[in-house]
Write a structure and sequence with these properties.
By secondary structure, the protein is an alpha/beta fold. The chain is built from eleven helices and 22 strands.
Length: 394
């Protein structure tokens, strides 16, 4: 018997409504920004395992983004890692994290499955609640691209009304989550309502679900870039710094499965010999991370959540990644007007039973990546971004 619960689409529970009606009934979707188009980006290059040594050019087409706003729901119970239920049905949002949550719920052995591990206690929130997190709440990249921008949409929709809302959050969320909420969105700890996700469920008579600031699979609405551009306007944008991102401090895992890049030391040595700064963004305060990326001309290194910090980087920044190809990063490249290269000709070894995932790359391919990002950074930028990429990459 499948452990997956019955589901219901969010749109079926929250049809479009006026604000006064939605708040009176605590039901409906209140749009605040219309549907839009994330414009096409520069072509990007990718070296694949089967590419016979060739860096292949790929287009980065425009993507439609639906209207943004807030859905208002009544009598929602929040389980585990951010699974919202109403009347015993899992509420499916049009977003990657929601689909990931449903996939987890199909595994009866999952550690916070609400059907196979019934919570011992129920916490009832009398205040109106704002749900911004979901599966992936322990990973930096999800907060940067999924969860934090939802606060901007809630503020645009609700205005000062938002000040009356509280935010449920698992009590085992990383410590930096609270700091991130405070620094980027002004949400202090007194407004958080922690719960023990393996033992408690949270009943919300009045719940607000803001839209994600992307099309559901990480093509960002312009609002996302605007939201982060407003953070610390005293930090200048644009510069000539060359950054090589290192994940050497993250091999211990945490909320994400640990992964080890066998040639990390060789990659860092190549970068250092070319004048790159070797940086571990997660070790720095947020303002210093932002300053690094706003001042970068090139960002290169092992792909991971830290690479999503290019949301802070200026248009024209060159981004070079080692590891697998990522549609998340191609969407960011287009939204930010940046050029990108993916060195994804790697050999992978999947981890099992808690052992880390490992991957390897040829040192010659790493050298080629840095050759190309340097060439792209030094190329002139004509009016047509496609021509700029062709001029830089040949």
């Amino acid at each position: 018997m499948s452990a997956a619960p019955p589901t219901v689409e969010l749109a079926a529970l929250a049809p479009p409504a006026e604000m006064t009606t939605a708040l009176r009934r605590w039901s409906g979707f209140v749009p605040v920004l219309p549907a839009s188009l994330r414009p096409a980006g520069m072509p990007y290059l990718r070296l694949c395992p089967d590419a016979a040594g060739e860096w292949l050019r790929h287009d980065n087409p425009a993507v439609a983004i639906p209207p943004l706003g807030c859905a208002f729901l009544h009598d929602v119970t929040l389980h585990g890692s951010g699974y919202p239920f109403q009347d015993g049905r899992y509420i499916r949002e049009p977003a990657h994290t929601s689909q990931a949550g449903l996939a987890w719920l199909e595994d009866p052995a999952f550690h916070d499955h609400p059907l196979t591990r019934q919570p011992r206690r129920t916490i009832r929130l009398e205040e109106p609640a704002l749900l911004i997190f979901g599966p992936g709440f322990g990973i930096y990249g999800h907060w940067l691209l999924d969860f934090l921008p939802r606060l901007a949409i809630a503020r645009m929709t609700l205005g000062r009304r938002l000040d009356a809302f509280v935010l449920p959050l698992p009590d085992d969320a990383p410590a930096w989550v609270g700091r991130m909420l405070s620094e980027f969105a002004g949400i202090e700890a007194t407004r958080l309502r922690p719960y023990r996700r393996t033992e408690e469920q949270v009943f919300c008579p009045r719940l607000c679900l803001p839209s994600f600031a992307h099309h559901g699979d990480y093509a960002p609405h312009a609002l996302m870039r605007q939201f982060y551009a407003a953070y610390r306007p005293d930090i200048p944008t644009g510069g000539e710094r060359r950054l090589c991102l290192s994940r050497h401090g993250l091999d211990g895992g945490g909320f994400s499965h640990p992964r080890i890049f066998e040639q990390r030391a060789a990659m860092e040595a190549i970068a250092a010999a070319r004048g790159f700064e070797i940086v571990a963004p997660e070790s720095l305060p947020f303002a210093e991370q932002v300053a690094l990326f706003r001042g970068a001309r090139i960002v290169a290194g092992e792909y991971g959540s830290g690479m999503h910090n290019t949301i802070f980087s200026a248009p024209g920044t060159v981004v070079g990644m080692v590891g697998w190809w990522s549609h998340i990063q191609t969407h960011l490249l287009a939204a930010c007007g940046q050029s990108g290269l993916f060195m994804s000709r790697i050999t992978e070894q999947q981890g099992h039973d808690g052992s880390p995932y490992r991957f390897s790359a040829a040192v010659d391919d790493l050298e080629a990546l840095f050759d190309r990002v340097e060439a792209a950074a030094e190329a002139p930028t004509p009016g047509d971004p496609g021509l700029a990429a062709e001029a830089a990459w040949g």
